[in-house]
Design a protein that fits this description.
single chain; alpha/beta; 11 helices; 14% strand; globular
Length: 272
């Protein structure tokens, strides 16, 4: 297979028609049979792959910063619209978070690992949003089936259920309750794991005001968790970052294997 075919499988699995701006085929390649894949893959991992005879390196987190990468945040506009929030409202609320992130993006060394991959002639890719979408859907489907007929579900039951999924069970960092108590009623459970990164407290508040009772997320900054606590509007369960990223990555590895490509996982990936 080639790098474009690997990417196409990822996009199809996530029901995406085009490649999001937080993904990329940084160095294209052909005849790929062995892939080294991890949550964060940089120059050191590229060198390791070269030494061990791999045909391609794939990073989950973006390693070269696309000029329009922050537009992926707009996925939250679509998610909130599906919950009944007008697009114009969420767009305005998201603007501040987008501006905040732009400061870090502007000063980042966005071609560091790309230059190393090119010097080594090592095929190199980044697949972020597709794997997040796959993992998000897996967790939502799992929790929906688990609690479909249990309207009085407590937050502690969500944590207990998550720990039965292999990636969370095998992770060193288990799911935790960041907002709410063990005996808090969960209400509507909404899994929010795609959309580039955390959208900020104003957007998170919109999810709760749209009827969500408990957000299940990969991670949340302390300041956002504190703001939600103070507003007393919902619960937040943090499933875990590396473990949640691993869900979609492990799924892609299984799909690629059917096409004759073996994937070795490292750099934060939790076995499923």
């Amino acid at each position: 297979m080639n790098t474009q075919e690997l990417m196409n499988i990822a996009l199809k699995a996530a029901n995406l028609k085009e490649m999001p701006n937080d993904c990329g085929i940084i160095v294209p390649g052909n005849n790929i049979k062995k892939v080294l894949m991890g949550v964060d893959m940089d120059t050191a991992e590229l060198l390791l792959a070269k030494q061990l005879g791999y045909d391609c390196v794939i990073s989950h987190h973006p390693r070269n910063t696309h000029v329009n990468m922050l537009d992926v945040l707009h996925d939250h506009i679509d998610k909130l619209e599906a919950l009944g929030v007008p697009r114009n409202r969420s767009q305005k609320l998201l603007a501040g978070r987008k501006d905040e992130l732009s400061y870090n993006q502007h000063v980042s060394n966005s071609r560091r690992s790309e230059s190393a991959a090119k010097l080594m002639n090592m095929p190199y890719m980044c697949i972020h949003t597709p794997t997040d979408i796959i993992g998000e859907a897996m967790v939502q489907e799992f929790l929906d089936k688990k609690f479909a007929k249990k309207p009085q579900t407590k937050v502690k039951e969500i944590v207990e259920a998550l720990e039965k999924m292999p990636e969370y069970k095998n992770s060193a960092r288990k799911p935790v309750i960041r907002v709410g108590a063990k005996d808090s009623y969960a209400g509507k459970i909404y899994v929010l794991m795609s959309g580039l990164t955390g959208p900020g407290e104003k957007i998170l508040k919109e999810y709760f005001e749209a009827g969500v009772g408990t957000l299940v997320m990969m991670h949340i900054p302390e300041k956002d968790a504190k703001a939600i606590k103070e507003q007393a509007i919902g619960n937040v369960v943090i499933a875990g970052h590396m473990s949640s990223d691993s869900l979609g990555m492990n799924k892609l590895a299984s799909l690629w294997k059917k096409k004759g490509v073996d994937t070795t996982m490292m750099s934060g990936v939790v076995s499923g």
